[in-house]
Queue: 3 jobs
Job 1
Amino acid sequence: MADDLLNDGEDWDAPRPYPRPIGLEGARWTVSVFHELGDLLPEKMELIDGKLFWSRRERIGMLAAMLEQVGLVDAVRLAPKELWLEALRRVEAEEQGG
């Protein structure tokens, strides 16, 4: 099945940029906004090899959608400040080639 997904030459595991703003506070969607997201969101909830959804792309897409709906203020309450700071350090190091 994974081979079928790759037939068009696209890497279905690579996350795509989330096309909508993720703000500090949560946002509500209209039906048209939901449809705009297209294949960024998975069709259904699945647990495959211990992970939700088929691909990293679907997991990141769903996470971005949920962050938009919930907002970053509530999201940062889910983990200790030290973990958020460590995550930021790792991302910055990756972006700087380190």
Job 2
Amino acid sequence: MSAPPAKNNRAFKMLLPLPLAMNVALFVLSNSPTLPIETPFLHFDKLAHFGAYFVLCGLWILALSWKHPPLRVSRLLGLALLLTIGYGMLDEIHQLFVPNRFGSLADLLADALGALAAAGLLHRFAPEQLFPALANDHRTPGKS
């Protein structure tokens, strides 16, 4: 008896460039000695970090949600958080070597909070059409 053919990873391969492109965009911004905009209010940079890493984590979750064979939800979310927060750590270290920039634990905390918020919200409210692995987890009858 042969195993059923595995689904291909076409959607995963098409979605994987999204978080990778976001990583490149964040690297380009971090590599610049000055930011392209003026900060409109105090601690705007923390809000920007939160938002950017919220999006980055969401993109990792989106891509990983289409992986076949599917990852367990805990593994999917853990991997997305590891990739996102790990990149945030590398980015802060990278900024130590960029003129007029510095690494900041407060920025890393904002990155991590953005990633955690994305993971939590998507785990709870993910639309089944976009996030099949997450949607199946919290819509299974009998699960709390």
Job 3
Amino acid sequence: MDGAELQRKAETAELLLDAARQLGETLEPEHVYERFHDLLAGAIEHDAVVVSSYDEADGLIRCDYAWVEGNRLDPAIFPPVALNREGGGMQSRVIVGGEPLAFNDVEERVQREGTYYDVNAEGTVRKLPESGPPGTQAVMMVPVKHQGRVVGVVQLMSDRRAFEPAELELFEGLVAQMAAAVRNARLQRERVRLEAAEAAALAVAAEREQAANVLDVVGDGIFLLDRDGIVRLWNRAAEIATGLRSDEVVGRAPGDVSPGWDELAARIPIVERGASARSVTLPVELRGRDLWLSFVAVRGPEGVVYAFRDLTGERRLDEEKSDFIATVSHELRTPMAAVYGAAQTLLRRGDEIGPERARQLLEMIATQGARLSQITEEVLLASRLDRGDIRIERGRVDLAELARAAADAVEGAFDIDAPEAVTAAGDADRIQQVLVNLLDNAVKYGGRDVRVSVELCDAVARITVSDSGPGIPHAEQRRIFEKFYRGDPHHARSPGGTGLGLFISRELVQRMGGRLDVHSEPGVGATFVVELPAA
């Protein structure tokens, strides 16, 4: 990879990091779209952008945001378009296939197939090709995905220029950041709306606490504590959220069911009936599960009605976003500072320093540039894994040969026990990527005594990487495979890294039909085990 490509990768990572920060600062979807377009305007030259959503319920594609040649247009002027499941039309093709499209010959494609629409700066919508040729030369379309489903499309159009492949890569990253910010904003707006609805529902529930058949269809968990502090109502949503059946809870004090209830209840504000309820989100441990529940409580004539909603998923999303910003910012800062400092030294004092010192500075720039490229590649690969956009090849793989090749790629001395007869079914490049990650971690954390073994056990090809380092605490052994997880969250003692290596490794192994586990006792090292289907 040449210097220009390294520079582009670093600039892309910096732009996406800044986009995540800017787009996450607003809780209004309309403002998110505006900031998204501001970021686009500074990154990719274009003449129009349209953000559309797709509703599976009615099969229609609707415009949410449109900007054409300097003018913000009313999305209502765009007619809803029915999804064409045969793939006719560019938007339908992206939604059905789930893959981005980029065309620099729009006029030719419009003539060949499908139904298309064009709009000018005044908001005049034309159906193509009946009304004449389009004014657009090039277009990029990227799907908006949520939990593996396509929920929208973002189009970027140019009237005078063609788009480059690197611009499509950057456009995909910005769309992913925008989609996450819009989902978060809509969740917050829905939360406010639901809290207002809860207050009204809870007032009714206080007067009609015996109407359990009605409460059982409410999406929020609801329970009633009478004046003696005994649970008299526990609806179906409360059962689903907590895993506690109604017959386990009703007729008992909450503290008998959940030992931490008294401390929890002291932090939940209780308002009188008719007053505005105020929600509070608290951590709750129930039967070994860690949940984040948002509570409101209203006092009525028969006791206190509590309503709660499970926000564990949203909390994890926020934590992942914070971890991403903190980790990548920290990891980018050091190599960027080294590259900048070495370059400045060469520029300002190039005539004064000798050839040996100049070579050292150039080697520093190359090394740190490679580190920047590695960080960028890890972030982009993790994003592609989340989207399911990774191709896995299938073939016979010689694990002994891969183990030796991986050891050659990592600085260190390894004791390798790898017979020639062990072959697995999988992707050779991806398996080697996993092994390099494990060996690199073993050297960083486990010291010099690293052992690699390859064996065939029944229908499973197994690779183990063992070290004699400090080991991994039992409480962290599940979490080390999480995205961005670092055993040292302040980056003070542990070696550098994005916290993505083990996440990527486990995801790749699982996509090849295998598994990746760790066995460790503190103080006696760690052993990572990769199991793949035998060829």
